[in-house]
Amino acid sequence: MRAALMWTINDFPAYSMMPGWSTAGMLACPHCMEDSNAFRLIKSGKQSWFDNHRKFLTMNHPYRRNIKDFIKNRKVTKKFPRVRSGDEILQDLNNRGLRNVIDVDAEVVNVSISKTCGWNKKSIFWDLPYWREHLLRHNLDVLHIEKNVFDNIFNTVFNIPGKTKDTYKSRDELNKYCRHPQFAQNLVTSKYPDVPFVLNKSQKKDALEWVKKLRFPDGYASNLGRCVDVNKLKMFGMKSHDCHVFMQRLLPIALREFLPNRIWEPITEISLFFKQLTSSSLTDEELRNLDEQIPVILCNLEKIFPPSFFDSMEHLLVHLAYEARIAGPIHYRWMYPPERYLRKIKHKIMNKAQVEGSISIGYIMDEAAKFASFYFKEGDPTLPLKEKRNEVYLDDIVNDDMFEIFKPPGKAICAEGKRYLADNEYTAAHQYVLMNCPEVQPFIDVFVREKRKQFLNLNDEAFNAVTEQEFPSWFEKYVHNHMARGRGRGSTLPGRTSSGRGSKASGMPDPGRGSGVDETPQQTEEVVNVPQQQHQQTDPHHGPEIVMNDQETWEGEEGEDGDVGESSSEHPTDETLPIAQFDPTIDNP
Known about the structure:
By secondary structure, the protein is mostly helical. Helix content is 36%, strand content 3%. The strands form five sheets. It has a two-stranded parallel sheet. It has a two-stranded antiparallel ribbon with strand order 2-3. Helix 4 (142-157) crosses helix 7 (240-255).
């Protein structure tokens, strides 16, 4: 058996261990390498990648000539050359004299060379004969890049103490690089004015209370309400997937009413960029558009946030679409699968004094149990089957004489309790049952045909809203009116019939017939007596329930005097009429 190494997947701090390129400092970008324009801030002493993205724009873009919104009095005419090939990188490593870590005196030689460049070693992967031919050898981890970008935006906009990028030092050095005199310190009061990208106290409280009340579909996301601290006006304990959901789905909505459009739009564009980049299907045209759009988005953010906001994580966004064009969709190349597997391995640690040995023994036991299970017909009988949440099994469905929507039993996903439904909740549940019941679909078709004639100019979205709002009341009147007409004429009551104890008749008319009267019933031999009493017109909102009992009799029909007519099918008379099988899709002859 032969195997080939395609690429490596790891977070950014571990990125330097694989190729040997340092991911710290002003040369942290493994794609730009020495072509980086990062610099060190005067007050805070941190590296900033501010104004490092105009070189990725087209040569005629107006931002290249802008000397006000970026580093003042600076025009950009340089263009990013291209990402280096494997042969060029290998030649550079050999020319510098870097050695593999297994060579003699490798540590001493590599340390002295690393002081003059970004390389700190020569990776052992270069010994593979095909490694230089790879277009992508090491993946940038979108998971942690997205989380870090979200943390920077959220903590700055919500002004989280100790985590915001809008600090006193950043305000002091702001006008040394940019032209923003309106944000400078007031010499009289020694205070700094408010910036438009930071929310005030009431706005933060409203946004966090909205997040606390959010509810997601089961399995879509964790409970973000547990991460909200309304008293301290911050969020804590958010995992990587929580940041992923918040960045792509909630951030534009949460900030829409509080930020000006010129600030809200670039933040929304970053959110949409991640959403499109992490989609399951990508086309080359979409990725080329993303590759052209992301430098513009970053430049728009540079016009809003201070230079201290931009670290290497924000800069790496310009290279993500390029890697996706080479290697394909992101969900095959980010850290979610390795992180889940690492969690599984950590659960095997029983002796914390011998971590590696515990993991090794646990892995061997799992492998042995897996191979042994192949000798059993239905797997290992000693391993219990773990049912998934809300999993429905066919064995749980016992009553076949039910509507399809009620057959899956369902399970509670939280603590059980009882309460009365509000009017809007009851209406929503009623609409959901009717619109998703296969047995009601023929009646929906009748309603749609009638309403299409009434509303000719409505689009599909507006017509669907009319259907959801008006169909329940229309359906109730339709059924009761046809039942009343059928009883008044002494004719057959069409309904579902089934053999066995406890069977029911639905009493629903056939939408294929206008009156619900079956003139020549020929589909079934099962009969029922209809009492020869004069029936009054039934209230369309309060029709009697029709139930077939164990003796195959109809009960529940009231006459003029309120008496209940009962008739047995064991001794049929001349007035006996057959019941038609209910099939709304077929016109009975």
